[in-house]
Amino acid sequence: MKTSKYSSLWKLILCFILVNIVFLSIFHSKISFLTDTCVQRKDSFETVTISTGNHNVQPYNNCPSYSPQITVKDLFQSYFQFFNNSTWLAQPSIYSISFNELHSLLYGSQTKNIYKSWPNYHKKEFDGSYPHTSMTTELFLIIAAKINISIHLVVEVGSFIGKSSSNIGRAIKIHPQWSKQVVLLCIDTWLGGVEHWLQYQHMVALEYGRPTIFEQFLANIIHANLTNIVLPLSTTSLIGAQLLIRHKLFPQVIYLDSAHLQGETLVEIEMFWALLQPGGILIGDDWRWRSVRCDVLRFARNIDVVPTIIRNTWFIQKHFIDPIPISTYVNPSCSPSRFKDLQEKLREEREINYNSLSWTNDVTETNQTTSKYDDFSLWFVNNSFFSTTLNRIIALFHLDDQCHLQIDGELQMKKRKFCKLSMWI
After folding, report:
1. Are residues 245 and 158 in the same domain?
2. Do 312 and 339 fall within a single domain?
3. The total number of structural domains that make up the chain
């Protein structure tokens, strides 16, 4: 009788253990599915790469299907056509700009410093109560360390009262190579998003029906002592992107924390990706938002890249274009030794694939002419970044006054004989 009793008890215990194992297995799989692979331990900065799957238009990661016929480049043709405009290509590109130069460019040379001239009518003081930002000073430093080009311009799209702006600004300030050469441009309407009007209306701080978020942003930046690093541009993200492209300002880092609606996020990603200097990084917040995640994955799949996820932050690095043969023609006084000197100088700047630069001693007689210029014409690449690189190469060789150079998608010179330098970018 006793044996039978113990036998029944053991059976009950075994059944209980089996039921728990099954339950925990199901529960764990559900949790893994719902939280995605991007969720990390709170004390960890480990990164996770997300596979975008095969290239079709079926739903993925709980995202709705979409029409591949509707693209951002079709909707905003005038914006993307700038990159093929010969007049625009002829203008110099800006990759490095000081705080004062950017202030004058955006606000006019006669405008007083926006911080020093701010009257603070609303008596704003520092307010650090807004809890939401994934971009910490430490995280920015970790991501920016992956960039192998010089950083001069950082753009933040969506700043609200300046919590992430202050964190990025502090990262710039404490970095020994950035403190005197990097500017953070913050683009925002400072009118608030839907979530701010619905959930944080007290922080919108309406006065006569209008938010005073911009005033709070200024107060917070002044409190953080970042008035020589952080510069606000009060406009929409789309207008901000257009201003950058018209001025040919190309950032090395762009941080997106503005659009959160599906489709809207994709528009911002596409437009600011086009502005990002090759080698730079596009960063975004709120990976855990379904709408943001879906648009990031759609964009990543379209350009065949894989985003990296750190907690609630995603980022994609813009790699240099695959090698394209380009021929530049410099005056015949160049020599192998001068070429080696050029190669070393360019290697220091780390902007192109230097190992594939090759020397040739050929001197080419050019017989081609154009209708506008009686000279040699060569199509090299429709990209302002490479125009700037090409300019530096020419400048290092000190072409004499008899050469005529016009960067508008063509390299045009008034000389008949040139020493040829083959370059792969």
Report:
1. yes
2. no
3. 2
Is residue 290 located within the same domain as residue 329? no
pLDDT in 10s for each residue of the chain, 425 residues: 545 555 666 766 777 776 666 555 554 443 333 333 333 333 344 455 554 433 333 445 578 777 777 889 888 998 998 888 888 888 888 989 999 999 999 999 999 999 999 999 999 999 988 878 899 999 999 999 999 889 999 999 999 999 999 999 999 999 999 998 999 999 999 987 776 666 666 666 667 667 889 999 999 999 999 999 999 999 999 999 999 999 999 999 999 999 888 889 999 999 999 999 989 999 999 999 999 999 999 999 988 888 999 999 999 999 865 333 333 333 344 455 555 565 555 455 444 433 333 333 333 333 333 222 222 222 222 233 333 444 433 333 333 333 333 322 333 333 333 333 333 32
Q: Which residues contact 124 (CB under 8 A, 6 or more apart)?
A: 212, 215, 216, 218, 219
DSSP tag of 408 = S
Burial of 326 from C-beta contacts in 10 A (0-12 / 13-18 / 19+)? buried
Residue 181 lies in a domain: yes
Verify that 313 and 329 share a domain, yes or no.
Answer: no
User: Containing domain of residue 364, as a range?
Assistant: 325-424
CATH of residue 237's domain is 3.40.50.150
Q: Out of 284, 317, 350, pick the residue that ends a domain.
A: 317
In a domain, 29, yes or no: no
The CA–CA distances, whole Å, from 68 to 172, 248, 280, 299 equal 40, 30, 27, 12
Residue-wise DSSP of 111-157: PPPTTTT---TT--------------HHHHHHHHTT--S---EEEEE
Q: Where are the alpha helices (DSSP H) in 149-289?
A: 163-174, 194-199, 201-204, 213-223, 237-247, 264-275
Q: Distance (Å, rounded) from C-alpha 362 to C-alpha 329? A: 11
